[in-house]
């Protein structure tokens, strides 16, 4: 109604169930084909759906980018699914979001209704960050064709992430352009690549440039330059044992002085030296100590290893063009914590004077001849140092002393002590001086094969040794029935030998043979009585097989001189320690004719190769007889059988 109550009316009607709406909006970076990020200049495609699009009278989409692009759809473009691409969208913000606003109107019953919806995509205008470029140390002389060096860098991107396939390496000096990189680790944001020197060159400077893009192709780069010619280096390292003033050996507790030179020391940012000793000492030099010639002393170095080496490791860094290079060099010195070694070579006794000889060696620094001494308290009642008697060339130490405790030589013990030039030790050796008559024998058991009545077996030798410096008296040698004995240098076989002597440090041989007198098995002991207070009676066990028949003979010795390396030689002796005597070995054929005669000092083995004196081979399959003599006296005889 109006003020004066005139009444008018009108109405509008629409279908509620058919009201339109705008679905979710998707923004795609159609330049990079991703829905996560865009950067300045990318194309953005806007996709959305419509419910009841036939109800929509107008439809548009706009961006809140710097260029505020807008697009109004025609009536034919309004459909259930709608799409539009904005080209080269301008957006300078480094980060944030771009929003797409879709607006629509519908008219029903003369009434206009408005609808809208929005979608967003993140902005990434931030460049990847390339930092910490480093590479293995180079000198100009090292840069040769085909050599390789590893370059490393940190490459990261805070937004869309690094595109690993976009990393490139350039180096003008090496004529390297856009070399594809490799080995990018997205988890740690680290990269490395191998630089191959294609041609020999010698520039003053070398620049490496690394470029990388992120997923939306924002490109970043960084470079590193270093001065090749001025690159520092570490010279040879000398380690001096400053406790002993030598460069060859050290031992536990010594002071070690490390000396070395530096090339271009002004390029060095840090410098240190360390030892791989047990106490692992390390020293870092101050900037004022870094010079052309550098020295440092480590005191009281702890190292328990007996031998081997101590290594000094010198490490340095230089920084050029923001790049850190590492350098190192090493030097060594031998370790000697070993004791000297003492071994006895022999002693002699004449009247009451005892002479001793020992060998004293040291595998390291060497023997201190002034640190050799001997405890002679059992002989002279004192300890004696005899430094001047050490022979450095042959490592032999000689000592003679008068036995002050007895007018005659006596048994006794002494101890020798020695240190090396480091004072390692003392090493010790105990020696027993034995002056009572002492017997040893080469065997205490003999076994004889069967033979027959009236025929003797081959004889077997027993060596009687006097290892003392007094005369050994053999009072008697007695054998059981069926056995006979013969003393060297005699021709008599007997069942009993009476007293004879063996001179100090010599030996004598006896031969024992089996002479059966009955058809029984024989066994028993040969008994040797002596003036050895510790072995007044020595026994040798004797055994035989049963008596045989007249056609049975003792199995001959067999050897096969056919050159196959197995049993090629027949060996006999020695049967005495006395080298002044002469041994002869004679071989005869079955007719008694001599075919071979060999001789040697009696204390050496005789070896026969199966040939005649004429160096011709003997026929195989034959039996030969031999005789073994010492100073012309028969010591042994028997048979030899040659087969090939």
Distance between the termini: 152 Å
Number of strands: 50
Task: Quickly give the structural class.
Answer: mainly beta
The percent range for helix content is under 10%
User: Can you list the strand order of the major beta sheet?
Assistant: 3-9-8-5-6
Major beta-sheet overview: 5 strands, mixed
What does the average pLDDT come to? 82
Give the percentage of residues in beta strands: over 45%
Q: Per the principal axes of the C-alpha atoms, what is the gross shape?
A: elongated
Radius of gyration: 54 Å
Low-pLDDT parts are 137-142, 405-409, 546-556
Number of helices: 0
Question: What do these coordinates show?
Answer:
This protein has 644 residues and is an all-beta fold. It is 0% helix and 50% strand. It is built from no helices and 50 strands. The strands form 12 sheets. The protein has a 5-stranded mixed β-sheet, with no helix packed on it. A 5-stranded mixed β-sheet has the order 20-26-25-22-23, with no helix packed on it.
Keywords:
644 residues; 5-stranded mixed beta sheet; mainly beta; 50% strand; 0% helix; elongated
């Amino acid at each position: 109604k109006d003020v004066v109550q005139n009444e008018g009316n009108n109405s509008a009607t629409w279908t509620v169930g058919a009201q339109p709406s705008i679905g979710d909006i998707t923004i795609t970076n159609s330049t990079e084909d991703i829905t996560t990020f865009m950067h300045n200049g990318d194309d953005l495609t806007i996709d959305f759906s419509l419910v009841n699009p036939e109800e929509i009278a107008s439809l548009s989409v706009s961006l809140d980018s710097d260029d505020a692009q807008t697009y109004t759809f025609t009536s034919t473009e309004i459909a259930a699914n709608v799409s539009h691409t904005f080209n080269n969208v301008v957006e300078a913000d480094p980060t944030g979001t771009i929003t797409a606003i879709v607006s629509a109107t519908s008219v029903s019953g003369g009434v206009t209704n408005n609808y809208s919806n929005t979608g967003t995509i993140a902005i990434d205008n931030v460049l990847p960050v390339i930092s910490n470029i480093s590479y293995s140390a180079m000198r100009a002389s090292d840069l040769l064709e085909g050599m390789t060096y590893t370059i490393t860098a940190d490459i990261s991107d805070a937004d869309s992430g690094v595109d690993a396939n976009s990393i490139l390496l350039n180096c003008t000096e090496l004529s390297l352009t856009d070399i594809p990189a490799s080995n990018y680790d997205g988890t740690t944001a680290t990269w490395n690549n191998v630089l191959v020197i294609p041609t020999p060159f010698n520039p003053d400077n070398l620049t490496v440039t690394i470029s990388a893009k992120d997923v939306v192709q924002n490109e970043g780069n960084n470079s590193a330059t270093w001065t090749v010619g001025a690159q520092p280096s570490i010279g040879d390292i000398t380690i001096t044992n400053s406790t002993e003033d030598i460069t060859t050996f050290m031992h536990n507790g010594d002071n070690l002085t490390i000396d070395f030179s530096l090339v271009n020391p002004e390029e060095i940012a840090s410098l240190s030296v360390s030892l791989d000793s047990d106490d692992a000492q390390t020293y870092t030099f101050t900037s004022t100590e870094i010079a052309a010639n550098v020295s440092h002393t480590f005191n009281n170095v702890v190292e328990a290893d007996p031998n081997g080496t101590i290594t000094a490791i010198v490490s340095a860094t230089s920084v050029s063009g923001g790049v850190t290079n590492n350098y190192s060099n090493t030097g060594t010195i031998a370790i000697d914590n070993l004791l000297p070694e003492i071994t006895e070579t022999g002693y002699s006794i004449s009247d009451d004077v005892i002479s001793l000889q020992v060998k004293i060696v040291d595998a390291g620094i060497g023997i201190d001849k002034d640190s050799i001494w001997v405890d002679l308290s059992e002989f002279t009642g004192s300890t004696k140092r005899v430094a001047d008697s050490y022979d450095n060339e042959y490592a032999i130490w000689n000592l003679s002393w008068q036995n002050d405790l007895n007018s005659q030589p006596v048994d006794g013990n002494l101890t020798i002590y020695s240190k090396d030039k480091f004072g390692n030790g003392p090493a010790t050796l105990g020696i027993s001086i034995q002056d009572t008559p002492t017997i040893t024998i080469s065997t205490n058991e003999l076994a004889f094969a069967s033979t027959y009545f009236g025929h003797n077996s081959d004889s077997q030798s027993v060596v009687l040794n006097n290892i003392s410096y007094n005369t050994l008296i053999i009072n008697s040698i007695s054998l059981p029935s069926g056995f006979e004995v013969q003393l060297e240098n005699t021709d008599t076989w007997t069942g009993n030998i009476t007293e004879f002597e063996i001179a100090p440090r010599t030996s004598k041989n006896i031969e024992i043979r089996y002479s059966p007198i009955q058809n029984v098995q024989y066994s028993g002991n040969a008994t040797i009585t002596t003036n050895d207070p510790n072995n007044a009676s020595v026994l040798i066990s004797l055994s035989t097989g049963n008596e045989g028949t007249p056609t049975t003979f003792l199995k001959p010795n067999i050897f096969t001189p056919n050159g196959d390396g197995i049993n090629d030689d027949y060996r006999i002796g020695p049967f005495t320690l006395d080298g002044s005597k002469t041994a002869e070995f004679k071989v005869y054929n079955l007719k008694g004719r001599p075919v071979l005669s060999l001789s040697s000092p009696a204390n050496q083995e005789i070896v026969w190769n199966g040939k005649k004196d004429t160096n011709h081979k003997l026929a195989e399959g034959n039996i030969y007889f031999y005789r073994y003599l010492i100073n012309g006296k028969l010591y042994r005889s028997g048979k030899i059988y040659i087969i090939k």
